[in-house]
Write a structure and sequence with these properties.
The structure is a homodimer of 328-residue chains. Chain A is an alpha+beta fold and 328 residues long. In chain A, strands 7-9-6-10-8-11 form a 6-stranded mixed beta sheet, sandwiched between helices. At the A-B interface, strand 1, strand 2, helix 2, strand 3 and strand 4 of A face strand 1, strand 2, helix 2, strand 3 and strand 4 of B. Strand 2 of chain A pairs antiparallel with strand 1 of chain B.
């Protein structure tokens, strides 16, 4: 260990203050003990993030912590679940410093508070190679109300929250400094921020539970993830490219460089919610999201059969070189 | 990725068959959805294992999988919890092969079946450096019956299950081939096996729930872990070195090289259960463990005050150069 802190010091000084749930036992125990509330299902999800695969090792430590938390909360949101708490396994690379850890814990703590997802437990170990973070998120949802990937039916409307492609374009701007210099400063900052700081759409959980037939979060690109949902449900879908919601910054960048539209639709890291909603529930779904102030766009419709068709501006189906971004 | 398999292939071919719990949703979804049984508390624990920190990268892949599962189940056992299921995040290094993965999944699957801990979900990513495995184990325990680390009281008996030091001596034998050559072959094999294959003491859960005032598993060495439990409970303890249960193989090796007694008591990787039991419960505790065929030894007593005293063969307290093995 490069810093002078022991594992117990790290836990006591930086992590135990975030363990505000009584079931966390102050992080003094081997495990957390939670009493589930009767009538609720428990939702559990787990995502690992690896330096220079899922984030840049030189990103601000608070941003790395936030991303690790938020990509997991995004999975809870897609199941209509409100957060109960988080477990964190942190594999620290050679040369980590207490300053780095303090900043990481500060970002982690702010998000634990913001999303009411206290730290429940975890593990701190030495990494082999770069920083590796594994978060398990626990959530709860009234029994039987979590939407699955398998529930989409022909005739359902196809919806996405927020805007698509911002994070993928932000990543492109980081990797291609020439492109970054040609983008407007405000646009560049907005897109870079979407890459660094996913926004788990927890405000959508009630609308999803009440009205969606299927839902998932968009983490590996809209085209690939939508295709997965369709396969899981045994249906196809038809969508219109011009209905895919784009931010002003994404629109600007794509206008200057049209090939980036494919990046936006296949690039990943959106952490928006993709949902299918029966026609009879459409008004309720749209109304519920309007009430919580979350933008949502109907981009197409579920159809019988298999496969996804995205119709372009000229009325012809678009073809993509690849479906999805893979972090694998 | 060095192998020709995509992440979806890995999941479909090797992991989905282990996801026998209906809440795992066939690993087709973002998350698992579990309906907790009324009256039960949920126990959650998470341990990360890193190549060449927690295991040897060249260990048999089935053994690596088993260790990752079992160290987590050991934490459940210490809380009196029976397994519900596991989540696995697997960060695969450059150069992994399908043969390696098939063997890993086979070991994982055997232990999922053996301990009735089906796979509930997880994540598969590219590692930065060596293989890194993170397991989250979920268990359940009748509400309010999980023993904590904080419940030890003066007068309680101090117990450990099984035998102490075997895994630490096994590790020493691997690192010091000269010592290995001097050990008897049967002893060497027994100790090496204890290092490779922890044995989570799930057969102890009912005895712990009914009779223990505090419990934890011994993962970082008896002396250090017992000291942690005493600090958490705000008590001290006195134990006798000659009462610490040793296997025949450990006894043999220590007789030839007495300094290895310290290794046995501080070396870690035991995955035995350390418990404190009030005098009125001693008979019940010992009887319950006898009925399930798990050896247990009373090694001392909880006392008022603070600190741990281990009295040696000559009646003088032993002093150790270090308390515990740290994987950090």
């Amino acid at each position: 260990v490069s810093a002078a802190l022991s594992e117990d010091d790290v836990i006591a000084r930086y992590l135990a203050p975030l363990a505000t749930h009584p079931g966390a036992l102050g992080l003094l125990d081997d495990a957390a003990v939670i009493s589930p509330e009767p009538g609720y299902d428990l939702v559990v999800t787990k995502d690992a993030l690896v330096a220079d695969v899922h984030f840049f090792a030189e990103d601000p430590p608070a941003s790395i912590a936030r991303k690790a938390v938020r990509v997991n909360l995004s999975d809870l949101a897609a199941k209509g679940a409100e957060p109960v708490g988080l477990l964190l396994a942190l594999a620290l690379p050679q040369g980590w410093t207490e300053d780095w850890l303090a900043a990481f814990a500060a970002g982690l703590g702010e998000d634990c508070a913001r999303y009411r997802a206290p730290l429940l437990g975890g593990d701190t170990v030495r990494a082999s190679g770069g920083l590796t973070i594994c978060v398990t998120a626990l959530g709860r949802v009234p029994g039987g109300t979590a939407p699955r990937r398998t529930g989409a039916r022909p005739g359902d409307g196809l919806y996405v929250t927020g805007t698509i492609g911002d994070a993928a374009l932000g990543l492109r701007l980081r990797l291609d400094t020439g492109l970054g210099e040609r983008a407007r400063e405000g646009d560049r900052d907005a897109l870079l921020d979407r890459y660094l700081h996913p926004r788990p759409r927890l405000e959508a959980i009630e609308a999803l539970r009440r009205h969606a037939s299927a839902a998932m979060d968009v983490s590996d690109g809209l085209v690939g993830d939508l295709s997965k949902l369709l396969r899981a449900s045994g249906v196809g879908a038809s969508a219109e490219a011009k209905l895919v919601p784009l931010s002003p910054a994404a629109r600007e960048l794509i206008a200057a460089e049209p090939s980036l539209f494919e990046t936006a639709l296949t690039g990943g890291d959106d952490y928006e919610i993709l949902a299918t909603v029966p026609g009879s529930e459409a008004e309720g779904f749209e109304g519920a999201l309007a009430r919580v102030g979350l933008a949502v766009a109907r981009i197409g419709e579920v159809v019988e059969g298999a496969g996804l068709t995205i119709v372009g501006a000229e009325g012809a189906p678009l073809a993509f070189g690849r479906d999805a971004y893979s972090h694998f």
